[in-house]
Design a protein that fits this description.
The complex is a heterodimer of chains A (210) and B (270).
Chain A (H helix, E strand, L loop, with lengths): L8 E6 L3 H10 L1 H4 L2 E6 L4 H9 L3 E4 L9 H32 L5 E3 L8 E4 L3 E3 L8 E4 L3 E7 L2 E4 L3 E6 L4 E4 L2 E3 L9 E6 L2 E6 L10
Chain B lengths: L2 E6 L7 H14 L4 E5 L7 H4 L10 H5 L5 H4 L1 E2 L6 E4 L12 H14 L2 E5 L6 H8 L3 E6 L3 H17 L1 H4 L5 E9 L1 H5 L6 H8 L2 E7 L3 H8 L10 H13 L13 H11 L2
Parallel strand pairs in B: 1-5, 1-6, 2-4, 2-5, 6-7, 7-8
Antiparallel strand pairs in B: 3-4
The chains are: A alpha/beta (210), B alpha/beta (270).
Chain lengths: 210, 270
C-alpha cells in the first residue's frame, strides 16, 4: 500500500459583508490560493460562484461531526428536508379536511325566497323556508333547504340537502341533476370521487329541531 | 285616521278592479267612510264598474298638480253615500306620478276617510310602486293558476322591499283573495287548491271568490256584483268586506261543489 501525507493550510473565516469578503480575497488572492478555506455559516450563491471562478477550494458548515463524511451529512440533510416538506403537505391536507368539516361562512336565513329574487351566497347556506318558482339561489358552499324548492338552484359546494318539486331546476357543479331523483322527498346530493351521488334522507335521520 | 289598502295582483286580468269596486262598496255598506282611488293612470276603468262613468270632472292627476281640490274631484256614489271615488287620468301617462305628490294625496285622503282603497295597475313598474309606497295594508288578488301566483309572488317581494312602511322598519299587512275559483276544476285537480296557494305565498287568506258569470254583466251595467243578492261572487265579496271591517265571518268552503258533495253522500250508501 502506498500512502502520501499532505499538510494542509487552512484559512478560517466567515462572511459578514459579501462585498468586503470579495475585495479582501481579491487583494490577498496569492496568499489563499494554496489554502483550504473554511467558511462558518451559510454561503450565498454569489460567494460560491466567486470562489469557484477563482478555483479556490472551500468548505462551509465546518463543524463536521467525527466519523461522518461530508457526503453522508449532506444526504441526511436532504432526507430531513424532504420529510419536512411532506409534513407541510400533510398539514395542509388536514387543514383542508377540517375546514370542510367546519361550517365556514355559514349563512342562516329564515325568509321566503320569492319569485324574481336572485340570492347569491358566498359560502354555506342554511335556508329554513321555501324557494318559490322563479327564484334563483347560488351558493359557492354547501346548501341545505328544509322546505320545498320550486325555483332554480346552483350549488358548487360539497353537498346539498333539499326537497324539490317537479318544476325545480337543480345544477350541482355545472351538472344538471335530473328532477326525478329529487322530487318530493328529502335528498342528499354530494360529490364522491368526481361522481354525483344522490341518497334519500329518511325522516328519522332529520332532526332539524332538537 | 284611516287605513290605506292597496289592491295588487302582479298579473293583469285577475279581477283587481272588480275586487276594488266590490270591496269599496261592501265597506261602505258596513257603515264606514270609504274612498276608492284608481291608480291605473292612462287606462281608467274603475269608474265604469262603479257606474260613475260620465260624472268624472277632475281626476287624481289634476288634484296632485293642484289644479283641483280633493273635494272638487271626489265623486259620490249613487248607491251608497259612504262610498267616494277618485278617478285616474285618461290623457296623462303614469310618469307624472312622483312620491311626494302621491304621499300628499294619500295623506289627505287618509285623514278624511276610514278606508282608502287603491286600485293598482297590472305589472310591477312605476305605477305599481307608487300605489304600494304609502299603503298600510295590501290585498293581493290571485286566480288559482300558476302564472297568476308567480306574478303575485313577485309583487309581494317588491312590496316587502319598496314600501315606505318597510323602509321605516315596519311591515305591510298582506291579505290574499283567491278569485274565480271553479269548484269542479279544483276537485278534479285541474285548478290549484287554496292550501297550495297559501303554502306558496305564505300570507293570510281573507276570502275566496267563486267564478260567477254575473260579474261580467254587473261590470257592464256599472252595478257591482255585491248588490246582487243571488250572486255567489257578490256574497263572497260581502263576507270579505265584513272581515275587512273587523267582523268575524267564518270562511265558507266554496271549493266543494254541490255535485261532488252529493257524490260523496251517495258513495256512503253504496
Amino acid at each position: 500500500m502506498q500512502s502520501k501525507q499532505y499538510s494542509v493550510k487552512v484559512y478560517e473565516c466567515s462572511v459578514d459583508d459579501e462585498e468586503e469578503f470579495i475585495s479582501f480575497f481579491d487583494t490577498n488572492y496569492t496568499l489563499f490560493k494554496d489554502h483550504l478555506i473554511l467558511i462558518n455559516g451559510e454561503v450565498s450563491s454569489t460567494i460560491r460562484d466567486y470562489l469557484n471562478s477563482k478555483s479556490l477550494i472551500f468548505l462551509n458548515n465546518v463543524t463536521l461531526p467525527k466519523g461522518r463524511t461530508r457526503k453522508a451529512l449532506e444526504e441526511e440533510l436532504s432526507i430531513e428536508r424532504r420529510e419536512r416538506d411532506i409534513d407541510k403537505i400533510m398539514a395542509k391536507i388536514e387543514l383542508e379536511k377540517l375546514s370542510n368539516r367546519l361550517q365556514n361562512n355559514l349563512t342562516v336565513l329564515d325568509e321566503m325566497v320569492r319569485s324574481g329574487r336572485e340570492l347569491a351566497v358566498d359560502g354555506d347556506l342554511l335556508l329554513l323556508n321555501r324557494v318559490n318558482s322563479g327564484a334563483v339561489i347560488h351558493t359557492t358552499g354547501n346548501l341545505i333547504v328544509t322546505q320545498l324548492v320550486e325555483g332554480a338552484i346552483r350549488c358548487d359546494g360539497n353537498f346539498m340537502i333539499l326537497t324539490t318539486s317537479s318544476k325545480a331546476n337543480v345544477i350541482f357543479h355545472d351538472v344538471e341533476v335530473d328532477n326525478k331523483f329529487l322530487a318530493d322527498r328529502l335528498c342528499r346530493v354530494e360529490l364522491k370521487n368526481k361522481e354525483i351521488v344522490i341518497t334519500p334522507v329518511f325522516q328519522k335521520e332529520t332532526n332539524w329541531v332538537s | 285616521m284611516g287605513i290605506v289598502i292597496a289592491v295588487i295582483s302582479g298579473k293583469g286580468g285577475v279581477g283587481k278592479t272588480t275586487a276594488v269596486a266590490n270591496l269599496g262598496l261592501g265597506v261602505a255598506m258596513n257603515g264606514k267612510k270609504c274612498a276608492v282611488v284608481d291608480f291605473d293612470i292612462g287606462q281608467r276603468n274603475l269608474d265604469m264598474i262603479l257606474g260613475l262613468e260620465n260624472r268624472v270632472v277632475y281626476d287624481m292627476v289634476q288634484v296632485m298638480d293642484g289644479e283641483a281640490t280633493v273635494k272638487q274631484a271626489i265623486i259620490k256614489s249613487k248607491v251608497n253615500e259612504n262610498l267616494h271615488f277618485l278617478a285616474a287620468s285618461q290623457s296623462k301617462d303614469k310618469s307624472v306620478l312622483s312620491s311626494q305628490k302621491v304621499y300628499k294625496l294619500v295623506k289627505e285622503l287618509k285623514d278624511t276617510y276610514d278606508y282608502v282603497i287603491l286600485d293598482s295597475p297590472a305589472g310591477i313598474e312605476s305605477g305599481f310602486e307608487h300605489t304600494i309606497e304609502f299603503a298600510d295594508a295590501a290585498i293581493i288578488v290571485v286566480n288559482p293558476e300558476v302564472s297568476s301566483i308567480r306574478d303575485a309572488d313577485r309583487a309581494i317581494g317588491i312590496l316587502d322591499s319598496k314600501s315606505q312602511k318597510v323602509k321605516d322598519g315596519g311591515e305591510v299587512a298582506k291579505y290574499l283573495i283567491i278569485n274565480r275559483i271553479v269548484a269542479d276544476m279544483v276537485q278534479s285537480g285541474e285548478m290549484l287548491k287554496s292550501e297550495d296557494i297559501l303554502d306558496i305565498l305564505d300570507i293570510k287568506l281573507v276570502g275566496k271568490v267563486p267564478e260567477d258569470n254575473g260579474v261580467i254583466d254587473a261590470s257592464n251595467q256599472g252595478k257591482p256584483v255585491i248588490l246582487d243578492k243571488h250572486s255567489i261572487a257578490g256574497q263572497a265579496y260581502k263576507r270579505i268586506s265584513a272581515r275587512l271591517c273587523g267582523k268575524k265571518v267564518d270562511m265558507k268552503d266554496i271549493e266543494v261543489s254541490d255535485s261532488s258533495l252529493f257524490k260523496k253522500i251517495a258513495g256512503i250508501f253504496k
